[in-house]
Design goal:
3 domains; Helicase, Ruva Protein, domain 3; alpha/beta
Length: about 325
Protein backbone atom coordinates (compact mmCIF):
# COMPACT_ATOMS: atom_id res chain seq x y z
CA UNK A 1 0.00 0.00 0.00
CA UNK A 2 1.31 3.46 -0.85
CA UNK A 3 2.07 6.12 1.73
CA UNK A 4 -0.82 8.17 0.29
CA UNK A 5 -3.30 5.30 0.88
CA UNK A 6 -2.11 4.85 4.46
CA UNK A 7 -2.55 8.53 5.07
CA UNK A 8 -6.14 8.55 3.71
CA UNK A 9 -7.12 5.53 5.82
CA UNK A 10 -5.60 7.09 8.93
CA UNK A 11 -7.52 10.31 8.39
CA UNK A 12 -10.86 8.54 7.61
CA UNK A 13 -10.70 6.27 10.63
CA UNK A 14 -9.47 8.96 12.91
CA UNK A 15 -12.20 11.42 11.90
CA UNK A 16 -15.13 9.22 13.09
CA UNK A 17 -15.05 7.68 16.58
CA UNK A 18 -16.09 3.99 16.74
CA UNK A 19 -19.00 4.63 19.12
CA UNK A 20 -20.45 7.40 16.95
CA UNK A 21 -20.15 5.26 13.78
CA UNK A 22 -21.91 2.33 15.44
CA UNK A 23 -24.67 4.57 16.74
CA UNK A 24 -25.29 6.15 13.34
CA UNK A 25 -25.48 2.74 11.64
CA UNK A 26 -27.91 1.45 14.26
CA UNK A 27 -30.19 4.46 13.78
CA UNK A 28 -30.07 4.06 9.98
CA UNK A 29 -30.99 0.38 10.11
CA UNK A 30 -33.82 1.02 12.57
CA UNK A 31 -35.14 3.82 10.39
CA UNK A 32 -35.12 1.58 7.28
CA UNK A 33 -37.02 -1.14 9.14
CA UNK A 34 -39.63 1.38 10.25
CA UNK A 35 -40.10 2.68 6.70
CA UNK A 36 -40.44 -0.87 5.39
CA UNK A 37 -43.04 -1.74 8.02
CA UNK A 38 -45.05 1.38 7.27
CA UNK A 39 -44.91 0.65 3.53
CA UNK A 40 -46.10 -2.89 4.16
CA UNK A 41 -49.05 -1.65 6.20
CA UNK A 42 -49.93 0.89 3.54
CA UNK A 43 -49.79 -1.78 0.82
CA UNK A 44 -53.30 -3.28 0.92
CA UNK A 45 -53.11 -3.60 4.74
CA UNK A 46 -51.89 -7.15 4.23
CA UNK A 47 -55.01 -7.86 2.13
CA UNK A 48 -55.37 -9.99 -1.04
CA UNK A 49 -52.83 -9.16 -3.72
CA UNK A 50 -54.93 -10.37 -6.71
CA UNK A 51 -58.42 -9.75 -8.01
CA UNK A 52 -59.60 -13.34 -7.66
CA UNK A 53 -59.10 -13.32 -3.88
CA UNK A 54 -60.18 -9.71 -3.44
CA UNK A 55 -63.58 -10.16 -5.13
CA UNK A 56 -64.01 -13.85 -4.31
CA UNK A 57 -63.80 -15.10 -7.90
CA UNK A 58 -62.91 -18.65 -8.88
CA UNK A 59 -61.84 -17.38 -12.30
CA UNK A 60 -61.80 -14.06 -14.13
CA UNK A 61 -65.42 -13.36 -15.17
CA UNK A 62 -64.60 -11.05 -18.07
CA UNK A 63 -61.58 -12.72 -19.64
CA UNK A 64 -61.18 -12.39 -23.40
CA UNK A 65 -60.92 -16.19 -23.68
CA UNK A 66 -63.66 -17.97 -25.66
CA UNK A 67 -65.04 -20.11 -22.82
CA UNK A 68 -68.33 -22.02 -23.36
CA UNK A 69 -68.96 -21.99 -19.60
CA UNK A 70 -69.68 -18.26 -19.91
CA UNK A 71 -72.14 -18.53 -22.80
CA UNK A 72 -75.15 -16.33 -22.06
CA UNK A 73 -78.15 -17.11 -24.22
CA UNK A 74 -79.45 -13.71 -25.24
CA UNK A 75 -82.37 -13.70 -27.63
CA UNK A 76 -80.06 -13.10 -30.57
CA UNK A 77 -77.62 -15.83 -29.59
CA UNK A 78 -80.36 -18.37 -28.90
CA UNK A 79 -81.96 -17.60 -32.26
CA UNK A 80 -78.65 -17.99 -34.09
CA UNK A 81 -77.90 -21.27 -32.29
CA UNK A 82 -81.32 -22.71 -33.12
CA UNK A 83 -81.13 -21.69 -36.78
CA UNK A 84 -77.71 -23.28 -37.23
CA UNK A 85 -78.88 -26.48 -35.52
CA UNK A 86 -81.85 -26.51 -37.91
CA UNK A 87 -79.45 -26.04 -40.83
CA UNK A 88 -77.58 -29.18 -39.78
CA UNK A 89 -80.63 -31.27 -38.92
CA UNK A 90 -82.41 -30.34 -42.16
CA UNK A 91 -79.39 -31.43 -44.25
CA UNK A 92 -78.84 -27.94 -45.66
CA UNK A 93 -75.48 -27.46 -47.36
CA UNK A 94 -74.56 -23.98 -46.13
CA UNK A 95 -75.46 -21.70 -43.23
CA UNK A 96 -74.12 -18.29 -42.25
CA UNK A 97 -73.83 -16.39 -38.97
CA UNK A 98 -72.55 -12.84 -39.39
CA UNK A 99 -72.15 -9.77 -37.23
CA UNK A 100 -69.73 -7.08 -36.18
CA UNK A 101 -66.53 -8.06 -34.40
CA UNK A 102 -67.00 -9.09 -30.78
CA UNK A 103 -70.66 -10.14 -30.90
CA UNK A 104 -69.92 -13.75 -29.91
CA UNK A 105 -69.65 -15.65 -33.19
CA UNK A 106 -66.64 -17.74 -32.15
CA UNK A 107 -68.27 -18.69 -28.86
CA UNK A 108 -71.42 -19.66 -30.75
CA UNK A 109 -69.39 -22.00 -32.97
CA UNK A 110 -68.04 -23.73 -29.87
CA UNK A 111 -71.55 -24.06 -28.45
CA UNK A 112 -72.59 -25.80 -31.65
CA UNK A 113 -69.73 -28.25 -31.25
CA UNK A 114 -71.03 -29.11 -27.79
CA UNK A 115 -74.64 -29.25 -28.97
CA UNK A 116 -74.34 -31.56 -31.98
CA UNK A 117 -74.73 -35.27 -31.22
CA UNK A 118 -71.36 -37.02 -31.87
CA UNK A 119 -73.27 -40.23 -32.67
CA UNK A 120 -74.87 -38.50 -35.65
CA UNK A 121 -72.35 -35.87 -36.70
CA UNK A 122 -68.61 -35.62 -37.24
CA UNK A 123 -67.55 -32.03 -36.70
CA UNK A 124 -64.51 -30.14 -37.95
CA UNK A 125 -63.77 -26.63 -36.68
CA UNK A 126 -61.52 -24.50 -38.89
CA UNK A 127 -60.10 -21.16 -37.75
CA UNK A 128 -59.31 -19.27 -40.94
CA UNK A 129 -56.15 -17.23 -41.31
CA UNK A 130 -56.10 -14.22 -43.69
CA UNK A 131 -55.99 -15.25 -47.33
CA UNK A 132 -56.38 -18.98 -46.61
CA UNK A 133 -56.22 -20.85 -49.91
CA UNK A 134 -58.43 -23.75 -50.96
CA UNK A 135 -55.53 -26.18 -50.47
CA UNK A 136 -54.87 -24.89 -46.96
CA UNK A 137 -58.59 -25.09 -46.14
CA UNK A 138 -58.78 -28.70 -47.31
CA UNK A 139 -55.75 -29.62 -45.23
CA UNK A 140 -57.23 -28.02 -42.11
CA UNK A 141 -60.48 -29.95 -42.56
CA UNK A 142 -58.67 -33.24 -43.11
CA UNK A 143 -56.40 -32.71 -40.09
CA UNK A 144 -59.56 -32.46 -38.00
CA UNK A 145 -60.99 -35.63 -39.51
CA UNK A 146 -58.01 -37.97 -39.66
CA UNK A 147 -57.21 -39.73 -36.40
CA UNK A 148 -53.57 -40.31 -37.27
CA UNK A 149 -50.85 -37.95 -38.43
CA UNK A 150 -50.24 -38.86 -42.01
CA UNK A 151 -48.62 -36.79 -44.71
CA UNK A 152 -51.37 -35.12 -46.69
CA UNK A 153 -51.20 -34.87 -50.48
CA UNK A 154 -49.91 -31.63 -51.97
CA UNK A 155 -52.39 -31.43 -54.87
CA UNK A 156 -55.81 -29.91 -54.34
CA UNK A 157 -57.63 -32.62 -56.29
CA UNK A 158 -55.94 -35.37 -54.26
CA UNK A 159 -57.00 -33.63 -51.05
CA UNK A 160 -60.56 -33.28 -52.35
CA UNK A 161 -60.63 -36.98 -53.24
CA UNK A 162 -59.44 -37.84 -49.74
CA UNK A 163 -62.15 -35.66 -48.22
CA UNK A 164 -64.73 -37.34 -50.47
CA UNK A 165 -63.60 -40.74 -49.17
CA UNK A 166 -63.96 -39.52 -45.59
CA UNK A 167 -67.47 -38.23 -46.26
CA UNK A 168 -68.53 -41.52 -47.85
CA UNK A 169 -67.06 -43.46 -44.94
CA UNK A 170 -69.06 -41.33 -42.50
CA UNK A 171 -72.21 -41.85 -44.57
CA UNK A 172 -71.72 -45.62 -44.42
CA UNK A 173 -71.74 -45.27 -40.61
CA UNK A 174 -74.88 -43.10 -40.63
CA UNK A 175 -72.97 -39.92 -39.85
CA UNK A 176 -72.75 -36.55 -41.57
CA UNK A 177 -69.83 -34.16 -41.76
CA UNK A 178 -70.39 -30.70 -40.28
CA UNK A 179 -67.65 -28.14 -41.02
CA UNK A 180 -67.62 -24.98 -38.92
CA UNK A 181 -65.56 -22.20 -40.49
CA UNK A 182 -64.73 -19.34 -38.11
CA UNK A 183 -63.49 -15.99 -39.49
CA UNK A 184 -64.83 -16.99 -42.93
CA UNK A 185 -64.35 -13.43 -44.23
CA UNK A 186 -60.62 -14.21 -44.43
CA UNK A 187 -61.09 -17.01 -47.00
CA UNK A 188 -59.60 -16.50 -50.44
CA UNK A 189 -61.82 -16.58 -53.52
CA UNK A 190 -60.60 -20.06 -54.35
CA UNK A 191 -61.44 -21.34 -50.87
CA UNK A 192 -64.97 -19.91 -51.12
CA UNK A 193 -65.57 -21.67 -54.42
CA UNK A 194 -64.23 -24.85 -52.81
CA UNK A 195 -67.01 -24.64 -50.21
CA UNK A 196 -69.51 -24.71 -53.06
CA UNK A 197 -67.78 -27.85 -54.40
CA UNK A 198 -67.93 -29.51 -50.97
CA UNK A 199 -71.62 -28.65 -50.72
CA UNK A 200 -72.19 -30.67 -53.90
CA UNK A 201 -71.30 -33.94 -52.13
CA UNK A 202 -74.69 -35.61 -51.95
CA UNK A 203 -76.87 -38.62 -52.59
CA UNK A 204 -80.17 -38.40 -54.51
CA UNK A 205 -81.88 -38.04 -51.11
CA UNK A 206 -79.77 -35.54 -49.19
CA UNK A 207 -76.60 -33.49 -48.82
CA UNK A 208 -73.75 -35.33 -47.14
CA UNK A 209 -72.10 -32.26 -45.60
CA UNK A 210 -73.07 -29.00 -43.94
CA UNK A 211 -70.75 -26.00 -43.82
CA UNK A 212 -71.53 -23.35 -41.21
CA UNK A 213 -69.75 -20.04 -41.79
CA UNK A 214 -69.09 -17.42 -39.11
CA UNK A 215 -68.00 -14.05 -40.41
CA UNK A 216 -68.03 -10.30 -39.96
CA UNK A 217 -70.69 -8.23 -41.72
CA UNK A 218 -68.36 -7.12 -44.49
CA UNK A 219 -68.44 -10.71 -45.79
CA UNK A 220 -71.98 -10.15 -47.12
CA UNK A 221 -70.79 -7.31 -49.31
CA UNK A 222 -68.18 -9.61 -50.78
CA UNK A 223 -70.72 -12.37 -51.39
CA UNK A 224 -72.91 -9.93 -53.33
CA UNK A 225 -70.46 -10.16 -56.25
CA UNK A 226 -71.99 -12.05 -59.21
CA UNK A 227 -69.21 -14.65 -59.12
CA UNK A 228 -70.57 -15.92 -55.77
CA UNK A 229 -74.20 -16.24 -56.91
CA UNK A 230 -74.15 -20.03 -56.79
CA UNK A 231 -72.64 -19.99 -53.30
CA UNK A 232 -75.23 -17.48 -52.05
CA UNK A 233 -78.08 -19.57 -53.40
CA UNK A 234 -76.95 -22.51 -51.29
CA UNK A 235 -77.10 -20.47 -48.07
CA UNK A 236 -80.65 -21.24 -47.01
CA UNK A 237 -80.08 -20.11 -43.43
CA UNK A 238 -78.57 -16.76 -42.50
CA UNK A 239 -78.70 -14.99 -39.17
CA UNK A 240 -77.11 -11.79 -37.88
CA UNK A 241 -75.74 -11.30 -34.37
CA UNK A 242 -76.10 -7.75 -33.07
CA UNK A 243 -75.49 -6.04 -29.74
CA UNK A 244 -77.64 -6.91 -26.72
CA UNK A 245 -80.25 -4.53 -25.38
CA UNK A 246 -79.76 -2.93 -21.95
CA UNK A 247 -81.66 -5.58 -20.00
CA UNK A 248 -79.70 -8.37 -21.69
CA UNK A 249 -76.43 -6.55 -21.04
CA UNK A 250 -77.22 -6.29 -17.33
CA UNK A 251 -78.19 -9.96 -17.14
CA UNK A 252 -75.10 -10.91 -19.15
CA UNK A 253 -72.83 -9.16 -16.63
CA UNK A 254 -74.62 -10.72 -13.67
CA UNK A 255 -74.47 -14.16 -15.27
CA UNK A 256 -70.73 -13.98 -15.84
CA UNK A 257 -70.13 -12.81 -12.27
CA UNK A 258 -72.25 -15.67 -10.95
CA UNK A 259 -70.43 -18.20 -13.16
CA UNK A 260 -67.13 -16.90 -11.76
CA UNK A 261 -68.33 -17.62 -8.22
CA UNK A 262 -69.47 -14.14 -7.16
CA UNK A 263 -72.88 -13.56 -5.63
CA UNK A 264 -72.34 -9.93 -4.65
CA UNK A 265 -73.56 -6.87 -6.56
CA UNK A 266 -70.23 -5.49 -7.73
CA UNK A 267 -71.59 -2.87 -10.14
CA UNK A 268 -73.90 -0.01 -9.22
CA UNK A 269 -77.06 0.26 -11.34
CA UNK A 270 -75.95 3.49 -13.02
CA UNK A 271 -72.64 1.84 -13.93
CA UNK A 272 -74.43 -1.05 -15.63
CA UNK A 273 -76.40 1.46 -17.67
CA UNK A 274 -73.21 3.31 -18.56
CA UNK A 275 -71.46 0.13 -19.64
CA UNK A 276 -74.32 -0.76 -21.97
CA UNK A 277 -74.43 2.74 -23.42
CA UNK A 278 -70.69 2.78 -24.08
CA UNK A 279 -70.42 -0.80 -25.40
CA UNK A 280 -73.59 -0.90 -27.48
CA UNK A 281 -74.24 -4.32 -25.94
CA UNK A 282 -71.36 -5.89 -27.90
CA UNK A 283 -70.10 -8.79 -25.79
CA UNK A 284 -66.37 -8.17 -26.17
CA UNK A 285 -66.74 -4.46 -25.37
CA UNK A 286 -68.84 -5.27 -22.31
CA UNK A 287 -66.14 -7.70 -21.16
CA UNK A 288 -63.38 -5.16 -21.71
CA UNK A 289 -65.13 -2.39 -19.79
CA UNK A 290 -66.12 -4.69 -16.91
CA UNK A 291 -62.63 -6.17 -16.66
CA UNK A 292 -60.99 -2.74 -16.55
CA UNK A 293 -63.59 -1.40 -14.10
CA UNK A 294 -62.93 -4.25 -11.69
CA UNK A 295 -59.18 -3.71 -12.05
CA UNK A 296 -59.64 -0.01 -11.24
CA UNK A 297 -61.82 -0.80 -8.22
CA UNK A 298 -59.21 -3.29 -7.02
CA UNK A 299 -56.44 -0.70 -7.28
CA UNK A 300 -58.58 1.82 -5.37
CA UNK A 301 -59.47 -0.82 -2.75
CA UNK A 302 -63.19 -0.55 -3.51
CA UNK A 303 -65.51 -3.54 -3.37
CA UNK A 304 -68.10 -1.98 -5.67
CA UNK A 305 -67.68 -0.32 -9.07
CA UNK A 306 -69.28 3.11 -8.83
CA UNK A 307 -69.61 5.96 -11.30
CA UNK A 308 -66.25 7.47 -10.41
CA UNK A 309 -64.46 4.19 -11.12
CA UNK A 310 -66.14 3.86 -14.51
CA UNK A 311 -65.33 7.49 -15.28
CA UNK A 312 -61.64 6.78 -14.67
CA UNK A 313 -61.80 3.72 -16.93
CA UNK A 314 -63.45 5.62 -19.77
CA UNK A 315 -60.92 8.44 -19.47
CA UNK A 316 -57.98 6.12 -20.22
Amino acid sequence: MSEFSHAVNDVSLASVPDDDLTSDLTKLIASNHQVAEQAGEASWNAGPLNQLDYFGFTTHPFSDAVNPDFFYGSRGHERALKKMVMTVEDDIALGLVHGMSGTGKSLLSLMLLHHLDPEKYRTALVLVSPGMTKTALLKEILRELLEYNEKLPAKTQALLDLLHDQVIDLYSRNKRLVILVDEAHFLSAGALHLLRTISNLETPQKKLTTCLLFSEDLFLRRLSHPSYLSLRNRMYMKVRLSGMDEDETVQYIKYRLLTAGCREALFEAEVLTGIHRKSGGVCREVNRLCHNALAEAFLQKQKVVDGEVLKNVLAE
